[in-house]
Structures are given as structure tokens and as C-alpha cells.
Amino acid sequence: SQSYKLVVVGGGAGGCSVAAKFTSVLPKNNVAIIEPSDTHYYQPMWTMVGGGMKKLEQSGRPMSQVLPKNARWIKERATTFFPEENRLVTASGEEINYEYLVIAMGLQLDYNKIKGLPEAFNTPGVCSNYSTQYVEKTLESLRNFKEGNAIFTFPNTPIKCAGAPQKAMYISEQYLRKHNKRNKANVMFNTSLGVLFGVKKYADALEKVIRERDISVNFRHELIEVKPDTKEAVFRLLDDPAGATKTFKYEMLHVTPPMSAPELLRANKKFTNEAGYLEVDKSTLQHIRFPNIFGIGDCTNLPTSKTAAAIAGQNKIVYDNLKLQMEGKNTYDGYTSCPLVTGYSKCILAEFDYDGQPLETLPINQAKERNTSFFMKKEIMPVLYWKLMLNGWWNGPGTIRKILHFGTGR
Ligand code: FAD
Ligand code: UQ1
User: Fold this and answer.
1) What kind and span of H or E run contains 207?
2) Do residues 190 and 218 touch, judged by C-beta distance below 8 A?
3) For 178, what's the count of Cα atoms within 13 Å in the CB-facing half-sphere?
4) What is d(CA 31, CA 19) in angstroms, rounded to the nearest whole number?
5) Which residues 6+ apart lie within 8 Å of 288 measured at CB?
6) Which atom of ligand 1 is nearest to the CA of 135?
7) Which CATH number fits domain 111-259: 3.50.50.60, 3.40.50.300, 3.30.40.10, 3.30.540.10?
8) What distance in angstroms lies between residue 309's CA and the mean position of ligand 2's atoms?
9) CA torsion 56→61→67→70, rounded to 10°?
10) How many whole angstroms from 308 Cα to the centroid of ligand 2?
11) How far is CA 327 from CA 183, 292, 317, 389, 403, in A?
């Protein structure tokens, strides 16, 4: 088995950026990243790949070049977590022990929850910007478009980059216009949601785009089946109490799949909230039940939109809070001190915490009456108070205590 100060699960946007911050402050090989993929993708570029503005290869770099050099890369999938024991197991059965864990596993794509997928991706017109396997079919479907419905879907789950299904549609609409096929196309947004976007300011702006570009929107329509033989897509009408469905013919069908937190997280009830996302504090990103575990990015329950931009806003918060946690400085342990002066030259230097447990700075028995403790009380403490503490430069003897106790603190 291997042991690390910090283990990061997932080498995507969140995992890679947090690991990089820690490798610059922790000694070499104190950080391990568990990540099975050969390639790291800049997923926001797939919108442009689908529209033919970038090539798929341009969105990927070898994982080995991207992950921080001073971290140990464990090129495997994590398979079981034992958070109470601070360890996890990988697909090969390797045991990894950690002091601190960052979980950055992203979302899983559940194409298979739609009947007929993923097989129908092998048939004409069915595509998806959300996967390296199907993103190039978006451009291909636009090139081969003859006439009929171009349908863009939005699933009935939270997804990453909630704008991307519409971006795919607007770019496709302009492609069809540019290539003189727009008058043969009926462009449609069939969304499980009841609004175009979660923020009203942008929803209003998008509504204007939809009107100007002659796109039709069908709210509360959830894709449940693709029938490639007849080129039909079946939608559940989410507001129909009887659960009725409606079938649309398609010439092109851009699928945004249902997404969920990785199975592996959901397997451990103590990790997740009801919906299966890693349950972290929304201000500190610390796990609410395991203080030595932090989460970042798409796999978390953070009630914001799941994007790389969000991760840019999160990674310093994880770094700062986890660093404080490592240093034991983020929470107050109740430290207090009362120098018990026992006469004109001796003192018992009491220091203790919330639990009434001694928390002594010096590696000697401070319960003993000493001249040194008396000198400290009479001469050092006033200087420390006037010169340091009142200027905000004295944070108590915790750091000195840790050094004198070789990091153990007691
Ligand atoms: P990911 O980057 O997905 O990384 C998760 C990593 O965890 C993966 O490398 C995976 O291999 C690894 N992993 C999973 N399971 C395990 C396991 N068991 N063991 C070890 N490793 C595991 N964001 C924007 O900010 N702007 C945009 O314009 C934008 N557009 C987008 C367009 C599309 C089409 C897509 C798909 C996404 C877009 N995003 C955009 C979203 C952005 O890409 C994601 O929010 C971001 O990549 C999430 O980062 P993450 O680290 O949480 O997950
Ligand atoms: C951003 O920080 C970011 O993450 C790295 C993105 O992901 C690709 C974005 O799409 C955006 C918009 C931001 C925000 C940054 C600026 C300069 C607006």
C-alpha cells in the first residue's frame, strides 16, 4: 500500500488545478492524483468542434503533460472509498492511504438511460457535443442535412454547462443559414426545463435570439427514446399527469444526455446528498461529514452552474481552506492559558483546551513551579501584548508548540 499527505481523485479541470497548487507547497511526491485517462480535454472547446470551428485534437493534451510534475500520477480508476479509515482502493486492488482527500470526479454521462442510445449514434443525424465519440458527428450531420427537423434536447437532470445545448443549436442554425439549407430546416429546442436559462437577464436575451432566428421551443419535453429506423425521437411530456409522450421526426438530433454524479460516489451514502452529489459546505468546499475531505467541480452539490469557470472560482477556496485544515489553524480548539503565579519567583504555567486537556507549549512539565515560567509571566508577556498582539502579530503559541513537539502538537 502507498501513503500520501494529499490524494486527489480525478485529473480534470478541478483535480488538476488543485493538485498543482499543493505541489508547490508540499514536498515532492506528497501529492498523488488518481486519474485513468490518457488525455485531458478542455471540454468547453467541444461546442466549437461540433460547429467545425476547431478540430477535436485541439481540445486534448496528453494527461502526462498536464498533471503537475511533482505529483505522483496513479493511472487508474478509484473503485472503493473507506473514508472512516482514510484510504481508498483502485481498480488494480492497490490500497492508497491519505491524510487529506480532494474529490474531483466530474459527472457521468448517462446516454444509456435513453432507449436506443448509444447505438443510434451509429446512424445518420444523431450526434452529441458532450462526448469525444459523438462530437464530430454534429458537423457531419450538418453537412449531410437535407431537410426536416433539427432537434436539440436538454435532459431532465442537472448538467454541466447548461448553456451548451443551446450553443450547439445556435451554431447549427447559422451553419444551415450559411449553406442555404435554412429554409428546409425546422430548428427546435426540446427541453425538459420550463425556462431557457436559469438567470432571467440571460433568459430574456436568449428569448430574443430564439425569436429572431425563427426557432421553436418545446418546454417540459424530455427525450426518452431514439428510433433510428424511422428517424423518430420520442419525448415524455413532463407536465402531463398521465405521462403522455410525443414523437417527432428528425433529420438531425443533437442529444444532451442525462448526467449524474459518478456511481462510485453514490455507492457511499455518507459522501452524498439525496441527489447523489458529494455533499460539501457551499462556502468552504469542505465535506460536511469528513473534515479531511474536500470536493470541487461538477461532482459536488454546490448549487451553482457546473462549469470550468466555476472551478476557477473554487480552486483557491479549496486550497486556502484545506491548507488551514492541514495546519490545524482553521478551527479554534479552545486554547487558553493562565499563568498561576505561586509567589515572588515561581509560576505554574497552565495551558489547556476546550476539553480541559493540557496543551503545553514547552516539551517540559509546565505543572511544575518554575522560575522560567515566572520570568515569562512578569517580563515577556507584557512585551508580547503591547508590541505584537495589539498590532495583530501574535496568534498564540500554536506554531511554536508544534515545532517543539515535532508536529504532534501535544
Ligand atoms: P472533469 O473535468 O469532467 O474531470 C473529471 C475527471 O475525473 C475526469 O478526468 C475523469 O476521468 C476522472 N474520474 C472520474 N471517475 C474517476 C474515478 N473513479 N477514479 C479516478 N478518476 C476518475 N465550462 C465553462 O466554464 N465554459 C464553457 O463554455 C463550457 N462549455 C462546455 C461545453 C461542453 C460540451 C461540455 C461537455 C462542458 C462544458 N463546460 C464549460 C463544462 C466544463 O468542462 C466542466 O464543468 C469541467 O470540466 C468540470 O471539471 P471537473 O474537474 O469537475 O470534471
Ligand atoms: C473562466 O474563468 C473559465 O474558466 C477557466 C471559463 O471556462 C472555460 C469560462 O468560460 C469563463 C467565461 C471564465 C471567466 C473569465 C473571464 C475572463 C470572463
Assistant:
1) helix 200-212
2) yes
3) 10
4) 7
5) 279, 280, 281
6) 34
7) 3.50.50.60
8) 4
9) 180
10) 7
11) 64, 12, 15, 21, 12
Identify whether 299 is a catalytic site residue.
no
How far, rounded to the nearest angstrom, does the alpha carbon of residue 304 sit from its chain's CA centroid?
A: 11
Q: What whole-number distance in Å separates Cα of residue 16 and Cα of residue 207?
A: 37
| Residue 353 identity | D
Q: What is the pLDDT of residues 6-39, one digit of tens each?
A: 999 999 999 999 999 999 999 999 999 999 999 9
Of 16, 161, 299, 347, the catalytic one is 161
Domain segments of the chain as ranges: 2-107+261-327, 111-259, 336-404
> Distance between CA 49 and CA 254 in Å, rounded?
14
Q: How many other C-beta atoms are found inside a 10 Å radius of the C-beta of residue 210? A: 19
Two domains, one topology: 2-107+261-327 and 111-259:
yes
pLDDT at 345 over 90: yes
Burial (CB < 10 A; 0-12, 13-18, 19+), residue 177, is middle
Predicted-assembly ipTM surpassing the 0.85 threshold: yes
Assign domain 2-107+261-327 to a CATH class.
alpha beta
* CA-wise closest residue to 277 among 44, 114, 101, 108: 108
**What would the pLDDT profile of 58-104 be if each residue is shown by its tens digit?**
999 999 999 999 999 999 999 999 999 999 999 999 999 999 999 99
**Secondary structure class of 227 (helix, strand, coil):** strand
